[in-house]
Write a sequence for this structure.
């Protein structure tokens, strides 16, 4: 089945040492919201897509432009006075592929990240909130290098639990292949799109990418509008969705 999943690059972009962010929908849709926000705030360029006949036959319309259901965006390189540079790549979608193709899609992402010489993969996730008044961000790492990142930014490491979907495959395959993958989990409400939890993920990314300035105030301010937009995308896609129910990535602990 993997031969029927393709990454199509619209243009050849140097992504060496960039951070690849995976943002398929999850609990509270926090990953989709965070991914959408990164694309908008940083004015990322759409550079490609992941295509498969097994994907939802739908187009996402934004600013009057139709795009495929899974898009790949990239930023320019942001460099500081000290010579350090940051660049991000975002794989964004409003739907989760059916269960039987989740592993091939995740494997494709891992292979492509290596081919493009990305420094590491960060996957954004939501987890059922334990403390709705003071939600936190937790982390899971596949390598000692990524565990050091969690320590550096004082992100509590999740010791026990289960993460499903594309993130789950990226984590266990990343661990097996010794490929650098970091999962950031924000406590979120599971009953509705939670842009405030998405803002926590963006704030964490902001700390990890010193050369890229990310202002989450618009995300908090426009929370309701963003939530409504994402909810609308999901609702509009339902009539033409595959018969297999979408699998939401989530964590059980």
């Amino acid at each position: 089945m993997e031969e029927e999943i393709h990454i199509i690059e619209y243009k050849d972009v140097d992504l060496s040492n960039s951070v690849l962010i995976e943002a398929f929908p999850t609990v509270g849709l926090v990953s989709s919201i965070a991914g959408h926000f990164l694309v908008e705030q940083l004015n990322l360029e759409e550079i490609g897509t992941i295509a498969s006949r097994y994907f939802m036959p739908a187009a996402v319309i934004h600013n009057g432009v139709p795009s495929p259901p899974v898009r790949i965006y990239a930023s320019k390189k942001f460099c500081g006075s000290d010579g350090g540079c940051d660049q991000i790549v975002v794989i964004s979608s409003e739907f989760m592929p059916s269960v039987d193709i989740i592993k091939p899609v995740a494997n494709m992402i891992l292979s492509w990240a290596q081919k493009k010489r990305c420094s590491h993969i960060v996957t954004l996730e939501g987890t059922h909130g334990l403390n709705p008044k003071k939600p936190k961000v937790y982390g899971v790492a596949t390598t000692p290098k990524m565990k050091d990142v969690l320590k550096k930014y004082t992100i509590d490491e999740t010791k026990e639990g289960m993460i499903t979907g594309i993130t789950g495959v990226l984590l266990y395959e990343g661990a097996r292949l010794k490929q650098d993958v970091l999962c950031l989990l924000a406590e979120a409400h599971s009953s509705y799109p939670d842009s405030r939890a998405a803002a926590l993920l963006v704030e964490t990314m902001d700390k990890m990418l010193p050369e890229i300035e990310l202002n989450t105030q618009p995300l908090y301010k426009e929370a309701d509008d963003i939530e409504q937009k994402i909810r609308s995308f999901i609702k509009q896609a339902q009539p033409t969705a595959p018969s297999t129910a979408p699998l939401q990535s989530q964590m059980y602990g």
